[in-house]
Amino acid sequence: MGPALVGDALSGVPMTATTLMPGGRLDERAKITPVRVAVLTISDTRDEESDTSGHILADRVVGAGHVLAHRAIVPDDVEAIRAQVKDWTTSGAADAIVTTGGTGLTGRDVTPEAIEPLLDKRIDGFSVVFHLVSYQSVGLSTLQSRALAGLIDGVFIFCLPGSNGAVRDGWDKVIAAQLDSRHRPCNMVELMPRLSEQ
Q1: Residue 66 resides in a domain
Q2: How far apart are CA 20 and CA 183, in angstroms?
Q3: What is the pLDDT confidence band of residue 22, given thresholds at 50, 70 and 90?
Q4: How far is CA 187 from the centre of its chain?
Q5: d(CA 198, CA 192)
Q6: What whole-number percentage of the chain has pLDDT above 70?
Q7: Which residue among 36, 43, 56, 63 is the one 20 to 30 A from 182 at the CA level?
Q8: Residue 155 belongs to what domain range?
Q9: Is residue 103 included in any domain, yes or no?
Q10: pTM assigned to the model
């Protein structure tokens, strides 16, 4: 994809803006280290059959060579979200959690309120990069998402919006590369053994 053409509002002269192109590369000679990923759908209305964003994530996790460690659906309820996340982060059975749903602005969207107090460390760059990627798909509508990421009990957590498009953008264009041990110059998998260092 070439550069995008945008107009200069002051002069009326078009100028060129470079389209976001992710850096890094995959070392095709290296073997992938499978990551144990749990998928959590947060919704008052979705069930196993209608959970399309959860299905997309589960399929992508397995398709990338990882292990689908757990999958669940919880309502938009702070305590229910926290209980499920803490169960997974303290069980030792997951290296990463990807949530879908509840990151919007309505009264029932409480994923950030549930997750932020649990974070040992916040990954500020995730939200920034997610919004850059999302902006290319949905424009300024990306402002309605409060996507976030961080570490809880030595487990990565990535909180995505509930739409299928946002899940695809979040996994395909941001999370997948960082959970791929072959990604260079660095990736989050190589950090996993050191996340609980004192």
Answers
A1: yes
A2: 18
A3: low
A4: 14
A5: 14
A6: 89
A7: 56
A8: 33-185
A9: yes
A10: 0.88
Q: Report the distance separating Cα 60 and Cα 66, nearest Å.
A: 9
One DSSP character per residue, 62-111 reads HHTT-EEEEEEEE-S-HHHHHHHHHHHHHHT--SEEEEES--SSSTT--H
Angstrom CA distances, 106 to 39, 101, 165, stand at 22, 12, 19
Q: Examine residue 2 and state whether it is found in any structural domain, yes or no.
A: no
- Give the 3-state secondary structure of residue 188: coil
* pLDDT tens digits for range 108-130: 999 999 999 999 999 999 999 99
Of 13-27, 60-74, 124-138, the poorest mean pLDDT is in 13-27
Backbone torsion region of residue 70, taken as left when φ is above 0, otherwise alpha when ψ lies between -120 and 50, otherwise beta: beta
pLDDT tens sequence across 55-74 = 999 999 999 999 999 999 99
The candidate with the shortest Cα–Cα distance to 87, out of 175, 146, 155, 36, is 155
Strand ranges of the sheet holding 121-122, from the earlier edge strand across to the other edge:
67-74, 36-42, 96-100, 155-160, 148-152, 121-122
Q: Give the pair of three-digit tokens for residue 10.
A: 């002051």
Number of domains in the chain: 1
According to DSSP, the β-strands at 4-7 and 14-17 are antiparallel
- Is 8 inside any structural domain? no
CATH (domain of 141): 3.40.980.10
Secondary structure (3-state) at 130 = helix
